[in-house]
Specification:
The chain is about 20% helix and about 45% strand. By secondary structure, it is of the alpha+beta class. The protein has 2 domains: about 1-35; about 40-165, Immunoglobulin-like (Sandwich).
């Protein structure tokens, strides 16, 4: 019977060490996973004049400046070089996450560290009258393997009525 107590004590010790190791593995894996970017992504946002997702202009005068705020966020897990292109379209060329095949009216570039964001005012002026003018912002990311920008399938858009004499 004396030998049985030693076996039970050894079993308890082995079980305790196993539980401690299991807890250690879970804690270390949680730390490792928390510090790695599992799903890399980029953000694109256009904010109204009060730096909110609201108060967007619906009508602007031809040739008159108006201000919006451009927001870009990098959660790619590495430094990223971004370009945002502003383009004009209409309801007939409205596509989900599709780049408009027109020349941009403005371009904005920024280099962001991982988990860094960019927020800056942008001032635009539209030269031609129109109803339901589609102002589109496209996010492009520089690809080192091709040494060129690639469309990131992210767009933001506003519909505006542009009134007054065309310039």
């Amino acid at each position: 019977m004396e030998g049985e107590e030693g076996v039970i004590d050894d079993d308890v010790r082995v079980a305790a060490v196993g539980v401690i190791l299991l807890i250690a593995v879970f804690n270390l894996s949680g730390y490792y996973l928390a510090n790695r970017n599992v799903e890399p992504f980029s953000e694109l946002g256009i904010l109204g004049p009060n730096q909110k997702i609201a108060d967007y202009p619906t009508s602007v005068l031809t040739g008159q400046n108006f201000t919006l705020y451009l927001y870009v966020g990098n959660h790619e897990g590495h430094v990223a070089y971004y370009q945002v292109l502003a383009k004009l379209g209409n309801r007939s060329n409205a596509g989900i996450n599709a780049s408009l095949p027109v020349q941009p009216i403005a371009s904005y570039s920024m280099l962001l560290l991982d988990n860094q964001t960019y927020l800056a005012p942008i001032t635009l002026s539209l030269k031609h009258n129109g109803t339901d003018v589609r102002l589109v912002f496209e996010l492009w990311v520089f690809q080192t393997n091709t040494s060129s920008f690639a469309f990131d399938n992210k767009i933001n858009q506003l519909y505006l009525n542009v009134t007054g004499p065309s310039i």
